[in-house]
């Protein structure tokens, strides 16, 4: 798994498999992980992080269901971004609906939400651009 470093917060209320899944998704978004990259085996990643193999397996299974990873018996988990665009939009809309409802409960304005989303989006795009420039040199 290239240069990507996984950080697990064992004190977090968020499940470990969710933390692992989220970090792999961020790795794909920032181009630390690319289409066709092979992820470490379940056993290898579990040993490296110090977690149960079933936890890694669950994270990989969720990523497979989300269309971001394919599981191959010989090669293991491989980054495979084959998710349909409309499906991705529908999933994102569902997740954002809850996040935005919470924002409204906390009196976060629409402009603040737009600024936050734009900032995060630019952050991911900038990571990708920096990596692309590094290839040219």
Automatic annotation (TrEMBL):
Signal peptide range: none
Span of domain HTH gntR-type: 14-82
PROSITE patterns: HTH_GNTR (PS50949)
InterPro entries according to UniProt: Tscrpt_reg_HTH_GntR, WH-like_DNA-bd_sf, WH_DNA-bd_sf
Keywords, in A-Z order: DNA-binding, Transcription, Transcription regulation
UniProt-listed Pfam families: GntR
Gene3D superfamilies in alphabetical order: Winged helix-like DNA-binding domain superfamily/Winged helix DNA-binding domain
GO MF term set: DNA binding; DNA-binding transcription factor activity
Name recorded for this polypeptide: DNA-binding transcriptional regulator YhcF, GntR family
Organism of origin: Parasporobacterium paucivorans DSM 15970
